[in-house]
Design brief:
Elements (H helix, E strand, L loop, with lengths): L1 H44 L3 E7 L6 E9 L4 E6 L2 E8 L2 E10 L4 E11 L5 E7 L2 E8 L31
Antiparallel strand pairs: 1-2, 1-8, 2-3, 3-4, 4-5, 5-6, 6-7, 7-8
Amino acid sequence: MRETGKNVRMDFISTRRVNVKRFLVIAAAAVCLLIGLQSASAQDAGVNGKWHFVLSTPGGDRDVDVDLAVDADGKVTGKFGTTDVAGIYKEGQLDLNFPFTSDEAGVTADMKITGKLDEAAAINGSWDFSAYNGTFKATRPAAEPVPASQPAGPAQPAPPATPAQPAPQS
């Protein structure tokens, strides 16, 4: 009978080890999944959203507000100022090519923008338009400060009503 008790105990320990191993494998898989989801989410954010581009030109810097959206396949759409944007974003590399009209130069041509998203979450690269070209840097616009609302204090009591004056008697 003693031998049977020892076998039961060994079976219990063996089963417990298997359960602990299963738990550790499942926990490791869950951690990997969470890390993968965070990485995918960060990559998806990439260049999505609002940007402030500063294009260096021979005539001085040109500022343009840009709004970009990237789909699951890396296709980029959005606005470059008021102009529709088209291009690709993949592995940190942004490549845009879209028709653009420069009122200043009086020219309509393809605007080509190539840039790389850096560790500081800025896009640096080059641009080509008609006979013009240069470099650019794009950063996220600074968040506009939200005005502090005036805290609603306790309601001020209404001024006391003045009693009606009796009419003078004559």
